[in-house]
UniProtKB/TrEMBL annotation:
<feature type="domain" description="CheR-type methyltransferase">
    <location>
        <begin position="4"/>
        <end position="286"/>
    </location>
</feature>
<keyword id="KW-0489">Methyltransferase</keyword>
<comment type="function">
    <text>Methylation of the membrane-bound methyl-accepting chemotaxis proteins (MCP) to form gamma-glutamyl methyl ester residues in MCP.</text>
</comment>
<dbReference type="Pfam" id="PF03705">
    <property type="entry name" value="CheR_N"/>
</dbReference>
<dbReference type="InterPro" id="IPR029063">
    <property type="entry name" value="SAM-dependent_MTases_sf"/>
</dbReference>
<dbReference type="GO" id="GO:0008983">
    <property type="term" value="F:protein-glutamate O-methyltransferase activity"/>
</dbReference>
<feature type="binding site">
    <location>
        <position position="155"/>
    </location>
    <ligand>
        <name>S-adenosyl-L-methionine</name>
    </ligand>
</feature>
<dbReference type="Pfam" id="PF01739">
    <property type="entry name" value="CheR"/>
</dbReference>
<dbReference type="InterPro" id="IPR026024">
    <property type="entry name" value="Chemotaxis_MeTrfase_CheR"/>
</dbReference>
<feature type="binding site">
    <location>
        <position position="82"/>
    </location>
    <ligand>
        <name>S-adenosyl-L-methionine</name>
    </ligand>
</feature>
<feature type="binding site">
    <location>
        <position position="86"/>
    </location>
    <ligand>
        <name>S-adenosyl-L-methionine</name>
    </ligand>
</feature>
<dbReference type="InterPro" id="IPR022641">
    <property type="entry name" value="CheR_N"/>
</dbReference>
<dbReference type="InterPro" id="IPR050903">
    <property type="entry name" value="Bact_Chemotaxis_MeTrfase"/>
</dbReference>
<feature type="binding site">
    <location>
        <position position="80"/>
    </location>
    <ligand>
        <name>S-adenosyl-L-methionine</name>
    </ligand>
</feature>
<feature type="binding site">
    <location>
        <position position="128"/>
    </location>
    <ligand>
        <name>S-adenosyl-L-methionine</name>
    </ligand>
</feature>
<dbReference type="GO" id="GO:0032259">
    <property type="term" value="P:methylation"/>
</dbReference>
<feature type="binding site">
    <location>
        <begin position="213"/>
        <end position="214"/>
    </location>
    <ligand>
        <name>S-adenosyl-L-methionine</name>
    </ligand>
</feature>
């Protein structure tokens, strides 16, 4: 591949195109020219870690040893930006409206087993599912023994999932949370870990972390009361977005919620949902058959 070097490393148009096509093929994530600087920074780190001389060398490595390099490359290149209670209005809505609604409906139900299922489908380093767990406990901890409550947290990146499952963060990550929330759900480290915090066991017990590529098969068998799909849809092209919305629709209980990120929308799939708030969408209680895609 052409070098076009003017510094130690420069990313040629051919190499950038290769990376974009590789990422899109493997993950469905759409990278364009606006992401070139981000790709350059992360690609530079990759070739330093692999002790290679050029971007071209690594492109060749991906082509010749895909089984060895694919997972490492996808982990390094995909975006993972998150925080506790990011877009707080979503969690406020859960606590004020959705969780009381679920509790009320199931109290009236004749079914013996009362359950809540929530899916964080692009959970990154775990702040989102832990925020969901805090919201659930704040809303229903006194009733928790009567309920089967589970949060599924998935991501394509095995590295961030490992961090999420560990549940250890820098103290600064929770500085903006109310002191009572910090004290109730986070344990401050001591000694050499004095600048770290760990999420409490009662939060971790609610969550199952699993690696999942959204473009591959979804092994879940049950339906969800709420699905979080925030700030990931924007990385897919429009046809892929519509395919994913169709799949999410099938995995949401009638009357359940799909929650997107602040800059995302359902596009043509909006007609199958009603608005529940800012980027909060409700599946009808009685659902018509909808076409995939």
């Amino acid at each position: 591949m052409a070098d076009e070097r003017h510094e130690d490393h420069s990313l040629s148009s051919k190499e950038f195109k290769f990376v974009c096509e590789y990422v899109h093929t493997k993950t469905g994530i759409l990278l364009n020219e606006s992401k070139r600087e981000m790709v350059y920074r992360r690609f530079s780190r990759i070739i330093r870690e692999r002790k290679l001389n050029s971007f071209s060398d690594y492109c060749h490595l991906l082509q010749t040893k895909p089984d060895e390099e694919e997972n490492y490359f996808i982990n390094a290149i995909t975006t993972n930006l998150t925080s506790f209670f990011r877009e707080k209005h979503h969690f406020d809505y859960l606590q004020a409206h959705e969780i009381p609604k679920i509790l009320s409906q199931q109290k009236k139900s004749r079914e013996q087993k009362k359950s809540i299922r929530i899916w964080s489908s692009a959970c990154s380093t775990g702040e989102e599912p832990y925020s969901i767990a805090v919201t659930l406990l704040e809303s229903m901890e006194a009733q928790l023994q009567e309920w089967d409550v589970k949060i599924l947290a998935t991501d394509i990146d095995s590295n961030v999932l490992a961090k999420a499952a560990e549940g250890i963060y820098d103290q600064s990550r929770i500085d903006d949370l109310p002191k009572e929330i910090q004290q109730r759900y986070f344990i401050k480290g001591t000694g050499s870990n004095s600048k770290n915090i760990k999420v409490s066991k009662k939060l971790r017990d609610l969550i199952t972390f699993k690696q999942l590529n959204l473009l591959h098969d979804w092994p879940m068998t049950g339906l969800f009361d709420v699905i979080f799909c925030r700030n990931v849809i924007i990385y897919f092209d429009k046809p892929t977005q519509q395919e994913l919305f169709a799949r999410y629709y099938e995995y949401i209980k009638p009357g359940g919620l799909l929650i997107l990120g602040h800059s995302e929308n359902l596009g043509a799939y909006q007609k199958y949902f009603s608005n529940g708030g800012r980027t909060i969408f409700r599946k009808p209680e009685v659902c018509d058959q909808v076409a995939a895609g």
